[in-house]
Amino acid sequence: MELSQAINTLFSVRKFLDVPVEWDKIGKILDAGRHAPSSGNVQNWRFVIVRNPELREQLAVAALKQHWIANAPIIIVICAELDKITHYYGERGEKVYSIQNTSLAVQNMMLTAHALGLGSSFVSAFDENEVIRLLGIPGNARPYVIMPIGYSDDQPNPNLIHYELENMTYFEGYSTSKRVSSMDNTSWSWRYGDKARDAIVRAAGKAQSKIEKSAGEKSFQDFIAKIRKAFSRK
Fold it and tell me: For residue 217, what pLDDT is reported?
């Protein structure tokens, strides 16, 4: 699976098949987390693998009774050790950088799991003290994410909508007056390749009737030709 496909099709899995996960795949997932970037290269993430069914159920209860978590054959709890990052970066290191580092590792791991044909989920709602107790996590570390992993028996939500870039992107400052316009977004999206190109051409096609009324059919076809030519240069 190509990276762009993995990113565009990744979703949170909450139903898992009762099928064991191969250790070589778990190793690849962990290694993907290990290779994530981190603040000052401190690499302060730590991974706790949980297979025991009873402990998996206890973690599910600690995660505000989200019992579906226990159905995953593997749970990885991603923690962060705080000593080194706090030594270098103080309070911001503990409260910001440590969370960022962990999140970068988890994203790598989830995308790798997806590319390997597995499903996963990012669970951050849990009783931290209970997870610490269950896993014997030392005082210099904190658990940030519970990530169940297994073969998916779930489907992505068909009603899930991703906002367009123009709804969340600004130029030169955070202001609605500086928001990326639709045409700016179109120009930017050319860099995303064939999928974005085809989507934009389809969107342009929806405006065909309006353009034909004001400029004629030949002008519209010329307009589409210019768009395709612009894409071919990117």
Answer: 52
Strands of 119-120's sheet in order across: 45-50, 74-81, 141-150, 119-120
- Tell me if residue 134 falls in helix, strand or coil: helix
**CA–CA gap between residue 152 and residue 140 (Å, rounded):** 34
Place of tokens 């709602």: 125
Domains and CATH numbers, the chain: 3-150 (3.40.109.10), 165-232 (no CATH)
pLDDT tens by residue, 67-92: 999 999 999 999 999 999 999 999 99
40 φ, ψ to 5°? 60, 15
Q: What does the DSSP assignment read for 124-180?
A: --S-HHHHHHHHT--TTEEEEEEEEEE-B-----TT--PPPGGGT-BSSSS-GGGBP
Cα atoms found within 13 Å of the Cα of residue 172, Cβ hemisphere only: 2
Given a cut of 70, the residues of the chain with pLDDT beneath it are 180-221, 223-234
* pLDDT score for 175: 81
- Residue 15 tokens read as 């139903």
